[in-house]
Amino acid sequence: MNLDMQWNDLVQEVTHVGAQGDSTQPITGIEYDSRRVRAGSVFVAMKGGSTDGNKFAEKAIASGAAGILTDSSVTFDHLIVYHPEIPILEVEHGRRALAQVSAAYFGHPERSLAATGITGTNGKTTTAFLVESLLNSAARTSILIGTIEYHVAGEVRPSIHTTPESRDVFELLAEGVYRGATELVTEVSSHALDQGRVASIPFDVAVFTNLTRDHLDYHQTMEKYYAAKRLLFDGTVYPAPRVAVINAHDERARQLAAAARRAGAEVRTYGIGQGDWRAVDHKLTPGGAAFTLETPAGSAKVTSRLAGEVNILNLLAAVAAAHARGLTFDQLVTAIPTLQPVPGRFQPVDAGQTFTVIVDYAHTDDALRNLTGLARQMLGGSDGRVITVFGCGGDRDRTKRPKMGAAAGEGSDIVIATSDNPRSEDPLGILAEIEPALRATGKPYIVEPDRAAAIHLAVSKAKPHDIVLIAGKGHEKEQILADRTIPFDDAEVARAALAELGQH
């Protein structure tokens, strides 16, 4: 961090439309949460989705704030009158200003890092883990920011958000650079792109995995959802990446590739049997996959421990991105067989039972179809059944609930519909929106709102060769209810259910 930073230094770093006052008081921190303000902090008062930080400007001043950045002209005018002793900046975009001042305060760590950003509805987490693993295999020191966890030069930390607020990102980056990191790999959510949380981070490589229905509670339409994802590539708000890696199978691929090229990016497409980086002659095995990797850099037969076609795509995306970051083709081919599955992403729970139990994060209809389709591929010609446990989150896009019911029924032999994270909603109300489409598939199903009971029920119904899919929460370690949050781990609950059957 810049311990010598004063108000004038900050002003030079931030795009602003109004300014008042000056101060030679050293700045001791940047905060967007008024509860964290201490003497010498600069408070960034910005409008948010659920609250307006401008309401807390007075509280921040009372706590010793050395200055205020505000995205509200009303707050700016008020503070000029009632707090002429406090330096104030008015900015057009609060979150972008937060990124600018945070980057400066923490010493511009982004300038010492080559950043790879991964966006898309599904596959972000797995692809990010794989990119980081490939970079680490070539002795690169990295920072990973993602849904499951954060990595700071080898240290693993719990994840708070898929993409944190920029102030927290830059603090993490500064620590990573201090520890020798030269690479940043981060999932980039559509919310983060839309809100400006990744402003001031120049992405060297940007990856687009896919776009399927999700987050419409926030974006409202698929066009707006796509427009948010496109911001990582088109150079309109953020600098265009040097290299754009795009899934050739996605219906938006051609459109996105054109936007990236217009912005000056080199475009690499990937896919199974198509794209610049492609897998051909692929064979799925119980332990992963084998295929021929064909690329502009070379061709080789490879084996992977990651199961299913969806993970072949994730691997192709990661390989193309890592090559863009300077790994040679030979380094990539050597590393691929060593790559490990990601926690909560098609994660097996094995206690020696005669059937398969899989925990997966699939929480959209497209992801659920991929998951059940992969289970069918694994069954091959056996008489095994697919038993799927799933639910839909509360206070989220309600339009996907019937779609997920249909996807579960169409891909499974037995479905147990249950709770995910109901949040403030009635779990039975959520299930009532899932059930009609599920019933219409004609598959046998059970509605059990207690998720633990649903998992135990699925395991008890399984016969030899069956596959039990526990979908929706993946790596998550808690369940969010209306009045409390409780510890809950799908894999641990499944192990307990297996133990009841005598499997340890």
Automatic annotation (TrEMBL):
Q: What is its EC number?
A: 6.3.2.13
Q: Does the keyword Nucleus apply?
A: no
Question: Where's the motif Meso-diaminopimelate recognition motif?
Answer: 420-423
Q: Which residues bind ATP?
A: G120, T121, N122, G123, K124, T125, T126
Gene Ontology molecular function terms on file: ATP binding; magnesium ion binding; UDP-N-acetylmuramoylalanyl-D-glutamate-2,6-diaminopimelate ligase activity
The protein's UniProt keywords, in alphabetical order, are:
ATP-binding, Cell cycle, Cell division, Cell shape, Cell wall biogenesis/degradation, Cytoplasm, Ligase, Magnesium, Nucleotide-binding, Peptidoglycan synthesis
Q: Where meso-2,6-diaminopimelate is bound, by residue?
A: R396, D420, N421, P422, R423, G472, E476
Checking InterPro entries in the record gives: Mur-like_cat_sf (IPR036565), Mur_ligase_C (IPR004101), Mur_ligase_C_dom_sf (IPR036615), Mur_ligase_cen (IPR013221), Mur_ligase_N (IPR000713), MurE/MurF_N (IPR035911), UDP-N-AcMur-Glu-dNH2Pim_ligase (IPR005761)
Q: Which family does it belong to?
A: Belongs to the MurCDEF family. MurE subfamily.
Q: What is this protein called?
A: UDP-N-acetylmuramoyl-L-alanyl-D-glutamate--2,6-diaminopimelate ligase
Gene that this polypeptide is encoded by: murE
